[in-house]
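A.,

Following up on our hallway conversation. Structure tokens first:
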């Protein structure tokens, strides 16, 4: 009779949901498999797969494998902690050691997201990476980076906006042989519940960061008897319009940094005159060119607030960009490769297109993350999940970073009011992912695990690292280049060595017209000593990503004077021919110093 398949599916779904709510003793344990840990983990850690249905709401759904790792404590002092990374699509198991350091006296369970890197199937989507790079390619370029996927994206002339991204989305979806409707937050949360019961734990603390705060909060609502407490780092409230609110959230964060006016100037200048820079394709390692507008740079800056190493330089970086120092963008551009390969894009878009995108209008697409995601979701046409917000009565600790445009602390603070047992703590000088960038944040989590009512054990108002004052650096990309290719400092080394030889030679011949050589050696050596002293005196080496100490600029006149003295000494009457060497070296060094470094 018509509709019998639908009826069977509904019955099967009801049975599954009843199974999830039943006590562990009343139902069979889920299937589990052991496997070697795929990455380095703390001693005593074992890894495995949890075997679960791809779709719990579908009859005779395929079985998939959800990766996990468990580190058993020798003498547990309390309930276990289960952690899931964010994304969606970020790997969790590589963070086992860090989570263990936060909860050293408890069992630590780290669960992957279904479809993630250490789950099966893995919903990787290299075509997306290829599409992003092609859409960022200069307009006249022909991008030839091959995709390593079974169905590679062919090389085409640089397309109109989102041309390559649309093709990448279609290609990836056609290649993925899974039911993407099974890869959404409700199923991911149900995996967490299933894992607790399969491991035999009565209760545990659920720890999520960014996107996974949603999954962990939903898991606690689905399994109230199993949730002792929750830690929500960089909380992403339910039903938020993440894409539509992103531009305003970025602007609010820049306001807190005090760089909004300079940011506006930099974006305006780069929109009028985009910059083209070279970097590496993260998939093929080939050299590629990317063309960045001001809006593209705004996107990179927004993403950089999640990097504890990048955050301190952002005020100086924005100030330098406003003054036209576009070479300062190189560290951010080089960091894009790691960001593009840190997610499984098939899983990312399966979740975003079902759970996040439907609540947004995408009226503002200036940030290319919003533009790309709107394009992929339009191509994939997945049904919205229609999920409702989750509430728990368990104690909840919500941590927020002062400088977090991705999950702004103001939104997290407001959302705390909807969680009866929640308390909120903001951490100064921290961006997205508090536990990654703040020792105080980690200590606060440890104290909460021991006693949910425990006060913050450290000063959350003290930044873990000071931001780099724009006035404390002379803007140049030379130092960043030298960090990756030290051989470019060869002219400085040769100049310093010859300056020492000039001192020795000039001292020996000072009575025979060696005075100029001696003075050249002294001024050159003094300059090199100032360079060495100023570099060693820098408190935070991350400052070299945007420049060098200003004293090097102001004392560079010593190098010019040294070179001038060497030239005069070399070309005076009856001067020894050997003096041509320091003179020529000085000229080359001065050109290198003034023309490139400064």
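Then the amino acids I'd put at each of the 598 positions:
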């Amino acid at each position: 009779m018509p509709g019998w398949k639908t009826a069977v599916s509904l019955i099967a779904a009801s049975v599954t949901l009843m199974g999830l709510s039943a006590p562990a003793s009343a139902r069979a344990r889920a299937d589990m498999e052991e496997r070697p840990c795929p990455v380095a983990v703390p001693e005593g850690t074992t890894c495995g797969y949890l075997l679960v249905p791809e779709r719990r709401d579908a009859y005779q759904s395929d079985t998939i494998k959800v990766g996990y790792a468990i580190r058993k404590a020798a003498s547990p002092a309390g309930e276990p902690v289960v952690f899931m990374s964010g994304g969606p699509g970020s790997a969790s198991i590589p963070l086992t050691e860090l989570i263990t350091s936060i909860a050293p006296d408890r069992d630590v369970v780290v669960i992957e997201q279904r479809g993630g890197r250490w789950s099966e199937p893995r919903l990787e989507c290299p075509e997306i990476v290829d599409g992003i790079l092609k859409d960022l390619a200069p307009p006249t370029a022909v991008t030839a980076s091959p995709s390593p996927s079974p169905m590679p994206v062919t090389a085409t002339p640089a397309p109109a906006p989102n041309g390559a991204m649309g093709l990448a989305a279609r290609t990836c979806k056609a290649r993925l042989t899974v039911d993407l409707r099974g890869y959404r937050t409700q199923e991911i949360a149900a995996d967490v519940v299933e894992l607790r019961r399969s491991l035999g734990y009565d209760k545990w603390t659920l720890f999520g960061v960014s996107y996974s705060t949603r999954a962990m909060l939903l898991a606690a609502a689905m399994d109230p008897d199993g949730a002792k407490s929750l830690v929500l780092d960089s909380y992403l409230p339910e039903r938020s319009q993440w894409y539509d609110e992103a531009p305003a959230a970025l602007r609010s964060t820049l306001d807190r940094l005090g760089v909004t006016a300079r940011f506006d100037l930099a974006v305006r200048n780069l929109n009028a005159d985009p910059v083209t820079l070279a970097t590496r394709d993260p998939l093929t390692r080939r050299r590629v060119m990317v063309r960045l507008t001001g809006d593209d740079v705004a996107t990179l800056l927004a993403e950089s607030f999640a990097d504890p190493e990048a955050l301190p330089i952002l005020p100086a970086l924005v100030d330098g960009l406003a003054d036209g120092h576009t070479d300062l963008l190189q560290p951010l551009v080089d960091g894009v490769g790691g960001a593009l390969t840190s997610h499984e894009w098939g899983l990312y878009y399966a979740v975003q297109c079902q759970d996040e995108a439907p609540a947004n209008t995408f009226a503002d697409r200036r940030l290319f993350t919003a533009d790309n995601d709107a394009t992929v979701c339009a191509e994939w046409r997945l049904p919205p999940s229609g999920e409702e917000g989750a509430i728990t009565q368990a104690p909840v600790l919500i941590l927020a970073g002062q400088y977090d445009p991705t999950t702004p602390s103001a939104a997290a603070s407001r959302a705390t009011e909807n969680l009866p047992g929640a308390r909120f703590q903001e951490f100064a000088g921290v961006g997205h992912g508090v536990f990654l960038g703040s020792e105080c944040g980690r200590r606060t989590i440890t104290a909460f695990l021991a006693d949910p009512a425990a006060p913050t054990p450290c000063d959350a108002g003290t930044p873990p690292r000071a931001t780099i004052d724009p006035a404390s650096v002379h803007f140049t990309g030379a130092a960043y280049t030298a960090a990756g290719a030290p051989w470019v400092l060869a002219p400085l080394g040769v100049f310093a060595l010859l300056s020492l030889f000039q001192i020795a030679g000039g001292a020996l011949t000072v009575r025979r017209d060696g005075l100029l050589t001696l003075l050249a050696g002294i001024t050159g050596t003094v300059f090199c000593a100032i360079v060495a002293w100023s570099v060693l005196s820098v408190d935070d080496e991350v400052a070299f990503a945007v420049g060098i100490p200003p004293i090097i600029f102001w004392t560079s006149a010593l190098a010019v004077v040294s070179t001038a003295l060497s030239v005069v000494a070399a070309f005076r009457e009856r001067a020894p021919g050997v003096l041509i060497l320091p003179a020529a070296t000085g000229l080359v060094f001065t050109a290198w110093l003034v023309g490139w470094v400064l």
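Residues 404 and 450 are 27 Å apart (CA to CA). Curious whether your intuition agrees with the design.

B.
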